[in-house]
Amino acid sequence: MGFYAINISTAATAISLLLSTSVLFLGPRVGMQRMGRWSGIALIGAYVLAIGVGALIGALGGFFLTRKLLPHR
Questions:
Q1: What's the pLDDT score for residue 59?
Q2: Closest CA to 10 of 60, 65, 58
Q3: Which of 1, 18, 42, 73 has its CA at a distance of 20 to 30 angstroms from the CA of residue 51?
Q4: Does residue 1 sit in helix, strand or coil?
Q5: Which residues are CB-contacts of 39 (< 8 A; sequence separation ≥ 6)?
Q6: Which ranges of the chain does DSSP label H, i.e. alpha helix?
Q7: Looking at per-residue confidence, does 64 or 1 come out higher?
Q8: Which one is predicted more confidently, 18 or 69?
Q9: How far is CA 47 from CA 16, 19, 22, 37, in A?
Q10: CB count in 10 Å sphere of residue 46
């Protein structure tokens, strides 16, 4: 059971970091400046949302990867 916890938390952290960083990197370049004065708030909201979505995707990915790699008992 320990492998599940390690892989799920590691994958969730990695994907969350990747997704949130990409939002911060690509957000201002994709057209957030068209939103005017709300662009900063929209970017922060997208960043927080990317952290949660990335954690969920990473946790599910880590779980299924661990199930595939561990031998069946």
A1: 93
A2: 58
A3: 1
A4: coil
A5: 28, 32, 33
A6: 2-30, 39-69
A7: 64
A8: 18
A9: 10, 8, 9, 17
A10: 16
